[in-house]
Amino acid sequence: MTNPDYQPSEKDYLQKIKVEDAVGLTLGHDITEVRPGEYKGPSFRKGHTVEQRDLCHLMRLGKRHLYVLDLDKNQVHEDDAVIELARALAGPGVTFESSPREGKIQLIAAYDGLFKVRVDPLIEFNMVPDVMCASLHNNTPAKKGHRLAGTRAIPLVIDRDVLDQAVSLAREAFPIFAVKVFNPVTARLIITGNEVYEGLIEDRFEAIVSRKLTTYGATLAETVILPDDRNRIASTVRRFIDAGTDLIITTGGMSVDPDDVTRLGIQAAGVHPMYYGAAVLPGAMFLLAYHENIPVVGIPACGLYHETTIFDLMLPRLLAGETPDNRDLARLAHGGLCLDCTTCRYPDCSFGKTG
Amino acid sequence: MQDFKTLLDGSAKAHGHLCPGQVVGVRMAMVGCDLIALDNPSQLPQIKKIIVYVEIDRCATDAIAYVTGVKLGRRSLKFIDNGIMAATFVNLETDQAFRVRSTEKSRDLAAEYAPDIKDKHAQQLEAYMRMPADLLFDIQAVKVKIPAHDMPGPTRFKATCQNCGVVVRDKKEVYQNGKILCRSCAFGAYYQRIDTGT
Fold this sequence. Notes:
- The complex is a heterodimer of chains A (about 350) and B (about 200).
- Chain A is α+β, with helices and mostly antiparallel strands and about 350 residues long.
- Chain A contains eleven helices and 20 strands.
- Chain A has three domains: about 15-70, Molybdopterin biosynthesis moea protein, domain 2 (Alpha-Beta Complex), CATH 3.90.105.10; about 75-180, Pyrimidine nucleoside phosphorylase-like, C-terminal domain (Aldehyde Oxidoreductase, domain 3, Alpha-Beta Complex), CATH 3.90.1170.30; about 185-330, MoaB/Mog-like domain (Molybdenum Cofactor Biosythetic Enzyme, Chain A), CATH 3.40.980.10.
- Chain A has helices spanning about 55-60, 80-90, 120-125, 160-170, 195, 205-215, 230-240, 260-270, 300-305, 310-320, 325-330; strands at about 15-20, 25, 30-35, 40-45, 65-70, 75, 95, 105-110, 115, 130-135, 140, 145-155, 155-160, 175-180, 185-190, 220-225, 245-250, 275, 285-290, 295-300.
- Chain A is elongated.
- Chain A starts with 13 loop residues before the first strand and ends in a 24-residue tail after the last helix.
- Chain B has two domains: about 5-150, CATH 3.30.1330.130; about 155-200, no CATH class.
- The longest helix of chain B is centred in the first third of the chain and has 16 residues, at about 20-35.
């Protein structure tokens, strides 16, 4: 994309040719046909090789001259080039449109999952002259068929050497784009708090957690409400581990009050490592721990009051089989501030877009 | 395109019997092809311009395939396992597409259109031939985005399962927990291995 030495020049591969002299040559642009009330679209597409039988049709469309492409063997038309670029960029779980539109191809999700971007190679790809690719952010949850990225060769014709350089760079960094499938996770939930346990207030966490799990195809197999009792929390976490749970979620008890003992209970269950605190608002008091490969998360009370919190950022990654650590939690800092809009627009906002 | 009677005879022969599903399928295909302006879809050059998505695997599906010439092996016939008597006809050249769905009311109207026939099966068969297309079908103009890996043509995508080593074509691999896997390794197979002891 970046070319500090760029100089606009006459395109010597575009020639204006009389229609009757164009047989055997390649069209440099789409030719649109409009039949009122019946059809509007390209009758001849860019790249079409003009045949004798096309001449009458072109004349009927009022064409007396055409731009034709006269490419040498080291030049590639943008429509051919962009397919090579898309193939090199699209890793597992990523596919693309079958034909370019206006020289561009959109890369799309082949199935539901977590969109992964290798950011540094993507930047290097965009340092190659005459090609570009723009994508959604790394770690964006994706639905099958949704747009993930777009790529194109910038000029109408690109040099073969330049195209090969971009393709080779993408192949060496394969996969620059991928979609990790969400695992069919079985989750169990511990809701902590004396006030809920004693029936003084009604729990609202279970419905929220269940809805968010279901969005990604995970299942909430069991919910237990416990008082703020370190030992009972620890023994329930251990029971959940023994029951074959893929993801253990706790809610409440993450703050600094003397009764907030949930993280102590999780620690007593024998998890390691355990990370407490994240660079996200809302979600600073988030807890993430592991028992072998089983994640244990602690959602602070903000999960009740905010539509979107750190839980929404971490859940897709955990369901995709990732094991984020303290550096990942710190990396969320850049973009980790929720604007707390009146109507939540997440994921169509900056929240969690760490780049 | 051949006339309805000729197509129905051919379809019934290819399918193995004449049934109401054959009538519905032949008519659905004729309507669909007409809508996307293909009058000879089973022959070159039109054979390369059509893709049909069928939403059920019953008698009508064979009739649609017979009339249009679409085939699973050519990648021009796509099976969407919805259990709905519907098919979407796509003209790849113009991007025109129409979804044609068999109506439930056509079943209720069978007696009205073939009152002279008492046997239900025979009555449906005859009624579906007589019934106007606008009663037999609901038709919807649609847009179908066909990704590159679903297009006809040579295999363009191959991946190797990092668990069992099998080659997976056409982007059907899955990226699970950091590994590229075939769907059997990722999600389990539809079959169970039998240990033959050899």
